[in-house]
Design brief:
Layout (H helix, E strand, L loop, with lengths): L17 E7 L4 H11 L7 E6 L5 H14 L4 E5 L3 H10 L3 E3 L2 H11 L17 H16 L14 E6 L4 H12 L3 E6 L20 E5 L2 H11 L8 H17 L4 E3 L5 H12 L10
Parallel strand pairs: 1-2, 1-3, 3-4, 5-6, 5-7, 7-8
Helix pairs in contact: 2-3, 5-6, 6-9, 7-8
């Protein structure tokens, strides 16, 4: 934990948001994720965020200290820097530092009875396991090809097929699951043509056990569609209400698990899907 000067507590208000800095010796994904997970517990505060990535030497650490000291001296700083000397420069030069690694690493060293590794391969968001990395890249390519039913090629290889009416969050969820978890995800739009007879669309019918449905509220869906096609029948509240009801009926008839995506982040949607579908994260593939 970095030092905090005297009793001068930093404050944040809606009129003057408090600067928050994320500093990392790698991509800063961990610093941002953990830091934001802590900040969410202060919903009444306003924050202005800035990220400093690849701060992995004493010189780069000194430059970051200079920039923050000059422009935002009261910033709250979340730090994931493993280089001991660079971390010392940051901790000594900045107030309000929350070191997200040091104490936990010290504790792990004691538990495991071995020192930490300082090498580049220890970066949590580097390539690391190349098999897993390339599996994730192939999964992203699969998700892009199979976005919105554009391609049916090798659909049998999909780990998951997301079904939903237009604009319910199929694409971002598919891409997130591919990039973060290495899953091959196709997404398929439900249209008016799919509801007569309440049959699953022909291309996905053989893979119903891999299907997961998304819905929303009619009001929210109409808002999103209005941004795309203002004033169109496609965006009308009545049309949205009808499509969502038909989709939920279809899911029920074919025992397709589904989730209302309204007010849920893509991370939350993905977590629910992983749990309910029993999917493994980041599988290593040989295809």
């Amino acid at each position: 934990m970095g030092h905090q000067q005297g009793s001068d507590a930093v404050t944040a208000s809606s009129s003057a948001p408090l600067p928050v800095c994320f500093i990392s010796d790698s991509t800063a994904i961990t610093a941002e994720t953990l830091g934001n997970a802590l900040l969410v517990h202060f919903p009444d505060a306003g924050f202005l965020r800035r990220t400093f990535s690849f701060v992995d030497t004493v010189d780069t650490a000194r430059e970051v200290v200079r920039q923050i000291s000059e422009r935002m001296p009261q910033a709250v700083v979340f730090m994931t820097v493993r280089n001991v000397d660079a971390a010392a420069v940051l901790t000594a030069g900045l107030s309000n530092v929350v070191d997200l690694l040091s104490e936990h690493l010290n504790q792990l060293e004691r538990i495991l009875g071995m020192p930490r590794t300082q090498g580049d391969h220890a970066h949590p968001h580097g390539m690391g396991d190349t098999d897993r990395y390339h599996a994730r890249m192939r999964a992203v390519e699969f998700a892009v090809e199979h976005d919105d039913g554009q391609s049916l090629r090798m659909l049998e290889l999909a780990d998951l097929i997301i079904l939903a009416p237009s604009r319910c969050g199929k694409t971002p969820t598919a891409l997130y699951l591919a990039l973060q978890h290495g899953l091959r995800v196709a997404n398929y739009p439900l249209t008016e043509d799919d509801y007569p007879g309440q049959q699953l669309p022909g291309p996905v019918r053989p893979y119903s056990e891999r299907c997961f449905g998304l819905t929303s509220s009619a009001h929210r869906l109409s808002q999103v569609r209005q941004q795309r096609r203002p004033g169109s029948p496609y965006a009308s509240l009545e049309q949205c209400r009808r499509e969502l009801l038909q989709a939920e009926t279809l899911y029920g008839l074919h025992q397709i698990p589904f989730l209302n995506s309204q007010n849920k982040s893509v991370e939350e949607i993905a977590a629910v899907i992983l749990q309910r579908m029993g999917l493994r994260k980041s599988p290593v593939r040989i295809h």
